[in-house]
Structure formats: structure tokens, C-alpha cells
Amino acid sequence: MYFPSYRPRRLRRNENIRRMVRETHLRVDDLIYPMFSAFGENIKKEIVSMPGIYQQSIEHIVAEAKEVYELGIPAVILFGIPEEKDAVGSDAYCANGIIQNTIRAIKKEVPKLTVITDVCMCEYTDHGHCGIIKDNDVDNDSTLELLAKEALSHAQAGADIVAPSDMMDGRIAALRDILDENGFEHIPVMSYAVKYASAYYGPFRDAAESTPAFGDRRTYQMDPANRMEALREANQDVAEAADFLMVKPALAYLDVLRELKDNFDLPLVAYNVSGEYSMVKAAAEKDWIDGDRVMMETLLGMKRAGADLIITYHAKEAAKLLNG
Ligand SMILES: [Zn+2]
């Protein structure tokens, strides 16, 4: 009977050997922590479907930003919940909008923490869509002007990186142009290059209060069935001078992460979205899974699939485990 002389189990015999041949590593450096900044004072409201994640007023955001920095996590990404929403999302590009004030407060108290801002309209529009509505749909080109103004106002408030998540055509170039024209040529654009119209965003919409009042986002976010389209979207953003590419969501799209990693040389970001987080939390709460182990395996899987960085609500918990 034939038996191979190569035995893979030889390299799994003990933890030291396993450490020596381990191919993928999750590091605290890889993590980006999302935060929801709410208008008002003394607000710290846990999001029901996302245990441990809060809508918070600025003083609480700053306190948590300090904690994040002390854990060694290099960056946060900010989402805003304004006092008032309107049809054109005015708070999004107001010099004293919720996000602009939050950026300044974090930068004052925790200057070395990298502040990334989500650039989109859906948190600020009363209809909950990612841009200006014309004929019952989001109008691409008029939305670009507002997104550009929003990104510029974030840079002026001190943001280190701007991250457009709207999925309008041409937004990377629009942001790059306005930033360069105003002396912010050093500010990178992290593109949500490949963003699918996903049911995994459910809990986030509670958190950001951004559920569309009518219709859905399928005329601008991508069809979950499409892989080639992801390459076209990424190609387009590279041509428009994006500095990072992102795939969102991550867990059901690990093949897309690998595809982008193999085809592009920009840093690649995975967004481990709210629904992915909620599923782990809910199953762990029922004692159906070991929450910590599933969390670490999921994050490692995203790295193995090709992610260089992971935006994740697990960032603080993962950093604590990694820091030992
Ligand atoms: Zn949006």
C-alpha cells in the first residue's frame, strides 16, 4: 500500500512549531475602530443589536478615543448623528457639524490617534439616502458636489483620512480635486471601492439612524452576485487616485477581498460590518459559540483573504486579547 513520506502533521506537533510556520498574523496595527458621535451632552446609549457599541456625545467619544489609543489601535472611523436632518444633509458639510466638532475634540485630546471620517450623506438626510434625490432616485453628479464639500470640511476640522462610502460614480476624483485645490494634497482617500447592497448592515442603520425612508440602495450599491464588477469599481477608483481600497461587507465577500488583493497593490481594507458583529455577539450570549475564538478566527480569516486593515466593532476586544 502506498503511503506518502511527507506527513503534514509533523509541522503541527506543538505550539512552537505551529508558531514558526504560521502564515498569517492579526496585529493590533491592523485594526480600525468605528464610533458613532451623537449630538448633545451626556449621551451614552448602547445600540440594542450591537452590545458594547454606543451612540455617544462628544465627551464620551473623546474618553473612548483615549482608551482606543492606549490599547495601541492606530485609528478610529467616525460616523455622525446630527441634531437635525434635512433633504440636502446640511450638517454633513457644516463647519460646526457633529463630525467636524468631534474631529476637533479628539484631535485636541488624543492628537496622535488617526481620525478617519466616513464621507456620505445618509446619516444627515431626512430621507436616509446617500445623496440628493431627483425623480425618486439619488442624483449622482449633484451629490458629488456635496460629498466634496463634506470631505473638505472634515479635512479642515483636522481629519487625517477621508473615506467616501456613498458609491456615487466619480466621487474619488471629486474628493481628490477639492482636497488638492485647498492645500490638503497630503490627506489620503480611503475608498469604499466595493460596497454591496447588503442585509448585513441592519444593526448599523439603527446605530446611525440612517434607514432609507423609501426604496433601497440598490441603484448605487453593488449587487451581491457580482465579482467582475468589483474589479471594475476598484480599477476606476485606482484611476481616480484612491489611496486605500475597501470591501464591505467582509465575511460573505472573502473571495472579493482575495480578488482585489491579487489584482491591486493598494492597501486593502475589510469592513467587518455590524451584522457580522451582531451574529457573533448573539450566538455567544446564548453560549452557542465561544465568542472570543470566533471573533479572532473571523478577523484572521479576513487577513488571510487579503485584508491589510480591518474596520471592526471588535477592535477593542481583539486588541485586549492580542496585547495579552
Ligand atoms: Zn450612505
Give an overview of the whole structure.
The chain has 324 residues and is α/β, with parallel strands linked by helices. The chain is built from eleven helices and twelve strands. It has helices at 15-21, 58-70, 98-109, 140-157, 171-181, 202-208, 228-239, 254-263, 274-285, 291-305, 315-323; strands at residues 31-38, 44-46, 54-56, 75-81, 114-119, 133-134, 137-138, 161-164, 190-195, 244-248, 268-272, 309-312. The strands form two sheets. Strands 1, 2, 3, 4, 5, 8, 9, 10, 11 and 12 form a ten-stranded mixed sheet that branches. A two-stranded antiparallel ribbon has the order 6-7. Helix 8 (254-263) links the parallel strand 10 and strand 11. The chain is globular and about 75 Å long. The relative contact order is 0.13. Zinc ion binds next to loops. Zinc ion is lined by residues 120, 122, 130, 165-166. InterPro entries: ALAD (IPR001731), Aldolase_TIM (IPR013785). The active site is at 195 (schiff-base intermediate with substrate), 248 (schiff-base intermediate with substrate).
